[in-house]
């Protein structure tokens, strides 16, 4: 006999039983019991206490050279990481604005497509990590259970290791775990992006079947011709008659 409530080192397969259907590893004075059959642990989560959030630095993963100017335009992007040249785009938008519009649409589609690819790759990576961690955690628990049974007479593995003994593996791959929630969020986001993407344009499909990879150039050239024809028509039908009327 002894004061078992003073035990501070967790014992293998020994739990505190007070009442109900809950086993605890450390408690005040209770009865110490040993289970004779296999069992599965269901850990209780402590209620989260809301904490006051404080601003922290973003760390070194963000470039300090990037800034937002007074009119809300980002700047400071290094030249080697720029997708387009601002000077050339400025002259182009002034002289050939109709071409710039088509190029901007293509760049938006390109960025949107890469975002979908990034989300899909991240989702697959997190899914693979979750599957591996789940199996690894189960194997670690099984491998830990065997030496605890072998060393049960000496008090288990933790008696030999001491206070640094690991007795808990965070189950983040559980249905309510952080990895599972992140994977569900990525899956939902990927489905949302897929639903909001895609265009159904028979004219574009016809042009692609005829011109293939030259479709973009043909569309830009055709748009330019239509714009020039519209300007010439406006000059011929509106501006020239008005000037003649003013002269007469």
Describe this structure in words.
α1 runs antiparallel to α2 and α2 (97-150) packs antiparallel against α4. The strands form two sheets. Strands 2-1-3 form a three-stranded antiparallel β-sheet, with no helix packed on it. Strands 4-5 form a two-stranded antiparallel ribbon. The chain is 53% helix and 6% strand. Among the domains are: 4-34, no CATH class; 201-239, no CATH class. 2% of the residues are buried. It is built from six helices and five strands, in the order βββββαααααα.
Order of helices and strands: EEEEEHHHHHH
Proportion of beta-strand residues: 5-15%
Low-confidence stretches: none
What is the topology, as strand order, of the major beta sheet? 2-1-3
Count of individual beta strands: 5
Q: Strand pairing plus helix content: what structural class? A: mainly alpha
Largest sheet: 3 strands, antiparallel
Note the gap between the termini: 124 Å
The chain-level mean pLDDT equals 75
Oligomer: single chain
Q: How many H/I helical runs?
A: 6
Query: Taking Cα atoms only, what radius of gyration do you get, to the nearest Å?
Result: 34 Å
Task: Give the overall silhouette.
Answer: rod-shaped
């Amino acid at each position: 006999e002894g004061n078992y409530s003073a035990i501070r080192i967790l014992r293998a397969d020994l739990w505190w039983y007070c009442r109900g259907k809950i086993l605890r590893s450390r408690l005040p004075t209770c009865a110490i019991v040993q289970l004779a059959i296999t069992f599965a642990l269901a850990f209780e989560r402590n209620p989260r206490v809301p904490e006051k959030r404080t601003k922290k630095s973003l760390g070194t993963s963000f470039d300090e050279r990037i800034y937002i100017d007074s009119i809300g335009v980002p700047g400071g992007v290094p030249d080697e990481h720029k997708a387009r040249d601002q000077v050339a785009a400025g002259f182009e938008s002034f002289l050939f604005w109709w071409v710039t519009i088509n190029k901007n649409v293509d760049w938006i589609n390109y960025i949107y497509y890469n975002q979908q690819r990034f989300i899909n790759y991240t989702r697959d990576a997190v899914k693979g990590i979750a599957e591996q961690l789940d199996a690894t955690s189960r194997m670690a628990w099984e491998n830990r259970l065997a030496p605890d049974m072998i060393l049960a007479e000496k008090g288990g593995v933790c008696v030999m290791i001491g206070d640094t003994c690991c007795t808990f593996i965070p189950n983040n791959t559980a249905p309510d775990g952080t990895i599972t929630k992140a994977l569900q969020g990525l899956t939902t986001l990927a489905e949302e992006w897929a639903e909001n993407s895609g265009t159904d344009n028979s004219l574009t499909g016809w042009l692609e079947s005829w011109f293939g990879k030259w479709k973009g150039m043909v569309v830009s050239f055709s748009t330019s011709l239509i714009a020039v024809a519209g300007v010439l028509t406006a000059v011929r039908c509106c501006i020239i008659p008005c000037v003649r009327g003013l002269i007469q």
